[in-house]
Write a structure and sequence with these properties.
Involved in the modulation of the specificity of the ClpAP-mediated ATP-dependent protein degradation. Belongs to the ClpS family. It holds the Pfam family ClpS. There is one protein chain. The chain is of the alpha+beta class. It has a domain of about 70 residues: 2-Layer Sandwich (Ribosomal Protein L30, Chain: A), CATH 3.30.1390.10. It is built from 3 helices and 3 strands, in the order βααβαβ. It has a 3-stranded antiparallel beta sheet. The longest helix has 18 residues. It is elongated. The structure holds L-tyrosinamide. L-tyrosinamide binds next to β1, α1 and α2.
Length: about 100
């Protein structure tokens, strides 16, 4: 009991609860030489709910520039969707790749 009086709490080491925004992630469509343009547009439609005009524009941007940001969202959603899209392509025998990276 006598010992308890000697207990010192060092308040400097207590951390303030910080509410930080979860980091957002980009899903990036990567160009390749083999996946048909129509297939890319179909994947954008079925995985990301992107309509044909926007799908065409995004596909052509990746085709010309090498890559194109498709969507910015939470990490788990970005990773799931990029895997779904890559898996669809793999099943169809195309090398289409999508990657994710944290937004600045
Ligand atoms: N470059 C492909 C072709 O000419 C089409 C393509 C576009 C593939 C965009 C992937 O992310 C991509 N058939």
């Amino acid at each position: 009991m006598a010992d308890q009086k000697d207990t010192v709490v060092d308040r400097k080491t207590q951390t303030k609860p910080k509410l930080e925004r979860p980091k957002l992630y980009k899903v990036i469509l990567l160009n390749d030489d083999y996946t048909p343009r129509e297939f890319v547009i179909m994947v954008l439609q079925s995985v990301f709910n992107i309509g044909p005009e926007t799908g065409y524009r995004l596909m052509m941007t990746a085709h010309k520039m090498g890559s194109c940001v498709i969507v910015v969202c939470a990490k788990d959603i970005a990773e799931t969707k990029s895997k779904q899209a890559t898996d669809l392509a793999k099943e169809a025998g195309f090398p289409l790749m999508l990657s994710t990276e944290p937004e600045e």
